[in-house]
Amino acid sequence: MQSCVSSARAAAVLLVLSPLLSGQQRSNSGAEIANGRELFSVHCQPCHGPDGDLVPGVSMRRAEFKRVSTDDEIVRLILSGVPGTGMPPTNLPEASRVAIVAYIRSLHDASARAAGPGDAARGRELFEAKGGCLGCHRVAGKGSRKGPDLSDIGSTRNAAALERSILDPAETVLPQQRYVRAVTKDGKTITGMRLNEDTHNVLLIDENERLVALAKSDLREYTLLKTSPMPSYQGKLSSQEVADLVTYLLSLKGLP
Ligand code: HEC
Ligand code: HEC
């Protein structure tokens, strides 16, 4: 059953990636990295951990390996495993292995950038002023409730995840932060972030930051919106600014 599920998923990944690969071009798109993350969590995370640094001497985040150095070598290593060690062969199609390596690369790239010259004070300024983040987010009681409260985001997310949220929000929406659109039987439309939902009711925060409880039986239409209301900052902020923001967000660990 397990292998059924993962091979179906692998097939889906293959379909998505084949146009990219046929051009011999390895573009690390957000979608590819997201696929790689999912495959990694099923096939690799049990041993290597979510950040790829649980096996002694191997760190995906620091790109620290014993035998391999290039992406292609890792793509082959996944298939062969390392005989005589605890690293098993994993029989996945090439496109899936390439996606996993794109994800491993993204862990490294993000941590290299975040560990670099990111400046928390500049990041905070950006967050509160030019970046406009407070228009949707709240930190330590300041800002808006339209998006998630980020007061302790630094204790639950790593640099790679934060960077992805800023550059590619559509790929990273968590189920509990989905936006929904509801139309009531008397014609009112309400859009907001879903906080809770059961068979009969849905609780959300609307665009005026009001808590709204709706009975599903009063609704004519109820849709989960696939896209994030958070704009992508890809190309709008420099990589220095992104590093500053990530460093600032990592410093947010809630109240003591
Ligand atoms: C059952 C546990 C296990 C699983 C599952 C696993 N690994 Fe490993 N991996 C290891 C161990 C242990 C090592 C260290 C091998 C050694 O002693 O050199 C390792 C080493 C590695 C290395 C470093 C190789 C080198 O020597 O340069 C890479 C890269 C790697 N694994 C990637 C992956 C990827 C990607 C996956 C998922 C497709 C994966 N591993 C799944 C246990 C595992
Ligand atoms: C128009 C509203 C809006 C703006 C502006 C906005 N965000 Fe968001 N953000 C959201 C929403 C809604 C979510 C939750 C859904 C999602 O993940 O996309 C979110 C999610 C996030 C997350 C992920 C939270 C988690 O739990 O993983 C981070 C980090 C984040 N935003 C940072 C920022 C930063 C930094 C800025 C400014 C550069 C910013 N946001 C600007 C609405 C916004």
Helix and strand layout, with pairings?
Elements: H1 2-22, H2 30-43, H3 45-48, H4 71-80, H5 94-115, H6 120-128, E1 138-139, E2 142-143, H7 153-156, H8 159-167, E3 179-184, E4 189-197, E5 201-206, E6 211-215, E7 219-224, H9 239-250
Antiparallel strand pairs: 1-2, 3-4, 3-7, 4-5, 5-6
Helix pairs in contact: 1-2, 1-5, 2-5, 4-5, 5-8, 5-9, 6-9, 8-9
Bound molecules: heme C (2 copies).
Residues 43-44, 46-48, 55, 58, 65-68, 74, 77-78, 82, 85-88, 90, 100 line the site of one heme C (HEC).
Task: State the helical fraction.
Answer: 40-55%
Ligand names: heme C
Overall morphology: globular
Count of distinct strands: 7
Describe the biggest sheet?
A: 5 strands, antiparallel
What labels describe this entry?
256 residues; alpha+beta; Cytochrome Bc1 Complex, Chain D, domain 2; SH3 type barrels; 3 domains; five-stranded antiparallel sheet; 9 helices; 7 strands; 41% helix; binds heme C
